Amino acid sequence: MCYKKIKNLINDSINNNLLILILEKINDPRNLGSCLRTAYSFNVNYIIITNFNTCSINKTVIKTSCGYSKYLKIIKINNINKILNILKKNNIYIIGSSLNTNNNIFDINFKILNSIAIIIGSENNGISNKSIKNCNILIKIPMFNKVNSLNLSVATGIFLFEIIRQKLN
């Protein structure tokens, strides 16, 4: 796998509205592969994955992504907070997914936002507290029938769908 550099993303963001998916501490290769497949289907421009506590892009990830992972621009990073600060300095709006917020996905007008980065964290812990502090806003998917969370790849699909749905209308 040939990873891209953050400078590629920053250069692309100068004249383009980007959609960036940040996956923090994803341990299950099937979840990672599913997120990559979904990202490809929603035309995500860049995927950022954390170097620590994230599974590598292995045969299972590639198979689960149906091979689409090879078409994605993936950046592997060591320090997520440093990257989030760089993105914010380059006018990229940082959205964190969290169960601990009153803002739901339908409260946000994604159409007025230019470049967007959405952070999805592990099913066990969600996104880190440091990442939460670096977000412009936290949002959640409204849940019913005593269900308090979704599989992270399902949640990723819902978040990306709503962003694209709004931007296309």
UniProtKB/TrEMBL annotation:
Sorted alphabetically, which PANTHER family does this protein's record hold? 23S RRNA (GUANOSINE-2'-O-)-METHYLTRANSFERASE RLMB
Domain of life of the source: Bacteria
Q: Where is the tRNA/rRNA methyltransferase SpoU type domain?
A: 19-161
Q: Which InterPro entries match?
A: Alpha/beta_knot_MTases (IPR029028), rRNA_MeTrfase_TrmH (IPR004441), SpoU_MeTrfase (IPR001537), tRNA_m1G_MTases_N (IPR029026)
Which SUPFAM superfamilies is this protein grouped with?
Answer: alpha/beta knot
What is the protein's name according to its record?
Answer: tRNA/rRNA methyltransferase SpoU type domain-containing protein
Q: Which UniProt keywords apply?
A: Methyltransferase, Transferase
A UniProt-annotated Pfam family: SpoU_methylase
